[in-house]
Specification:
Layout lengths: L4 H17 L5 H20 L7 E3 L18 H15 L1 H7 L6 E5 L6 H12 L2 E6 L10 H20 L3 E7 L16 H14 L8 E8 L7 H4 L6 E4 L5 H11 L11 H7 L5 H17 L7 H13 L9 H21 L4 E5 L9 E4 L10 H22 L7 H16 L15 H24 L2 H14 L1 E3 H8 L5
Parallel strand pairs: 2-5, 2-6, 3-4, 4-5
Antiparallel strand pairs: 1-3, 7-8, 7-9
């Protein structure tokens, strides 16, 4: 239709000129023609007519191709993804054995774990064209726009594969929960359901004898929100869990991100990996980048261990603030953090990485703790130790200053959550309980009893070391911070 538009425009313009020459008032005609032109332009550009999605390897792209070796800390996910991609690479074997090719692969996991990188590496691994989009690109207030864009996405993928001379294409949709959420939740707005229906139709249309074989890879951190029709076999046949990396994975990721950075001799990436439990790949990349920025600010030629340790604090809590508390308030902060640190080191020797009373983000002071190994299960004693450490700040204020402050509010919330976890995990005097059947009053009494007993234990622990507490507070007021080794020297407790 669009190729006839210039002809129609020429005929129309000629007709208007002829009518004007004959003395006919052409203003109404021009007015209505202008309205039609505006509507046509709006419909073509705004309602999905010219939507183009991101491609990899397109003209002007300078980024190097991503391969699986460029992605660290996700060995299980990479292996599972490679296995699922074999149907694209071994079409003859698929046909010989009568195997139905996979139509979709769902990458599920927390943000920043490398789901988009895995999808791009999959395109490289299978020598496929790659077209990517975000779920938010499909949903608009105009009925039918989302469905039209889904069709365009698959059409663009096939067209790109033909243009690049490839036999397969990968369509990647990030945040698929936006368009693939459970149907019926958006009452009065059927555009969501219509868009999802079109996606289901496109996935059902994939077959082994297609001129261009298309595989849909989607990513989400909310797999629980997806419609069951998407998750059934024949649509998303494989669900690959992309979890936060473990210690070995973090070390691998740090190695990848420090390849192009000069590291000082004192840098131990294994120690950094141990200090960053719970970090995603994106957090680790930011950590290394912030360390390099700190080295640049100081005019250094190398990234040192000090830069990396400072970057860990910055990634967790944010940049240092110019907030300057008064002398009394600063002393209270030092007492509070010293209590946390002493309890933490006594309960888990070697765990304190740093103690600081300089404000970062929303924290006026903080104690950063590490653990030798990643822990995914906790015993009752380990949970009680965590509660003691959480309560130690307020208890230290009681012992030294004779009262508490509002700074312990978040500590109390953490302690109560841990105590609740103890009760509901069957590790309290109540024994095995059902969270649904346990009366709230009984739960409250059990949690309160646990907290009161552990508070008394924490008070006895710190009161017996009042001299040490005062010594740590004095050094913190003078230096604003202590490393883990400096703190242990003050504590005079040998690391076991």
């Amino acid at each position: 239709m669009m190729r006839y538009a210039p002809i129609a425009a020429g005929v129309g313009a000629g007709s208007v000129i002829y009518l004007a020459w004959r003395g006919v008032d052409v203003l109404p005609i021009l007015f209505f023609a202008g309205i039609i032109a505006v509507l046509a332009y709006y419909g073509n550009n705004k309602l999905g007519g010219k939507t183009s999605f991101a491609v990899m390897g397109g003209e002007g792209e300078r980024q190097p191709a991503i391969v699986f070796d460029d992605i660290g800390g996700q060995e299980v996910a990479k292996n599972e993804l490679r296995e699922a991609l074999e149907f694209i690479r071994d079409l003859d074997g698929i046909r010989r054995l009568g195997i139905r090719p996979l139509k979709g692969i769902l990458l599920a996991g927390p943000p920043g774990t490398g789901k988009t990188l895995l999808a791009k590496a999959a395109a490289r691994f299978t020598d496929s064209a790659f077209v990517g989009a975000s779920g938010s690109e499909f949903v608009e207030m105009y009925v039918g726009v989302g469905a039209q864009r889904v069709r365009q996405l698959f059409k663009q993928a096939r067209g790109l594969a033909r243009k690049q001379g490839k036999a397969s294409a990968i369509v990647f949709i990030d945040e698929i929960e936006v368009l693939g959420g459970k149907r019926g939740q958006n009452s009065g707005h059927l555009e969501y359901d219509q868009t999802l229906n079109e996606l289901l139709v496109q996935m059902d249309g994939l077959a082994t004898d297609d001129e261009v074989r298309v595989l849909l890879i989607a990513a989400t951190n909310r797999a629980d929100m997806l419609d069951p029709a998407l998750l059934r076999p024949g649509r998303f046949d494989r669900q690959v869990q992309v979890d936060l990396p473990d210690k070995t994975g973090r070390l691998q990721i740090l190695g990848l991100h420090t390849r192009n950075k000069p590291l000082a001799a004192d840098v131990d990436l294994g120690a950094v990996a141990a200090d960053t439990f719970g970090f995603s790949g994106a957090h680790l990349e930011s950590l290394v980048n912030e360390a390099a920025i700190a080295a640049l600010r100081e005019g250094g030629q190398e990234v040192t261990a000090r830069h990396l340790k400072g970057a860990i604090d910055k990634v967790i809590l944010g940049e240092k603030l110019d907030r300057l508390p008064g002398a009394d308030e600063k002393r209270r902060i030092a007492v509070h953090e010293a209590g946390h640190a002493i309890a933490g080191e006594l309960r888990r020797p070697g765990s304190v990485a740093s103690v600081n009373v300089a404000a970062r983000g929303k924290a006026l002071g903080y104690v950063r703790q590490t653990q030798a190994d990643d822990l995914y299960l906790h015993t009752a004693d380990q949970l009680k130790d965590k509660i003691v450490v959480a309560l130690a700040g307020a208890v230290a204020e009681d012992i030294v200053l004779g009262g508490r402050s509002t700074g312990a509010g978040s500590d109390f919330q953490q302690a109560a959550a841990l105590a609740r976890q103890l009760v509901l995990g069957g590790m309290s005097d109540l024994g095995i309980v059902s969270a649904d059947d346990l009366p709230q009053g009984t739960l409250h009494m059990a949690v309160a009893s646990l907290l009161q007993g552990l508070e008394a234990e924490t008070h006895a622990l710190l009161a017996a070391r009042r001299d040490t507490l005062d010594r740590v507070v004095a050094v913190l007021l003078e230096n604003e911070g202590l490393s883990g080794d400096e703190f242990r020297a003050l504590l005079s407790v040998p690391v076991q």
